[in-house]
């Protein structure tokens, strides 16, 4: 999945910010319980083009060192390199499943960790390296209208599996977990298709020609749903 995901987001890097209203909303919901506050070292996994860093001032969050890590160099090229609320910003192009993590006060993963091949291992490594963690992980109920139409299976895990992985991996942490659903409405097929293309969310795999054609001409376009598990963990 890794290379397909990297490719998909790299292709959408320039448009992602315009099509990420749901992800922006997720960031606000995820980080609100941690605000206001100062965090000495923040690691943002799958930081993309910088929506988390951009959201910090309005949320009342301040940071010492902010490290943004992403597998896509094109997404990182759109990421801000300074912020009024961060003393320093450093960007790293790496796969979060392979990178070494320095100890962090807060690790954030907003709409990104659902692409991990081995989520349990990644979370167990994070649990050893951070004091606090804030994750929003999409589930297989995301884009369900699309999968129903195409008769495809979501490449993502179901809610139960995600919750169980988080519960097990962050055992020594005070855990707060909840699930939220977001819906986007569209008036025409063109804006629906633009949303899918512009946001890079079809990252799991390329569509065969027949399905791509059906999607273009016949997709039911009124709604796109997203489901995410929200998780805040604090080392006790
Ligand atoms: C939906 S975007 C979310 C970006 C940002 N966190 C936000 O909320 O707007 C997912 C990001 O995760 C990154 N990503 C996916 N798999 C990754 C991996 N294995 N290592 C690092 N980054 C990854 C993608 O390149 C993409 O930028």
Automatic annotation (TrEMBL):
GO terms for molecular function: methyltransferase activity. Residues 42-128 form the Methyltransferase domain. One of its GO terms (biological process) is methylation. CDD domains: AdoMet_MTases (cd02440). The keyword Methyltransferase applies. It holds the Pfam family Methyltransf_25. Keywords: Methyltransferase, Transferase. The keyword Transferase applies. This is Biotin synthesis protein.
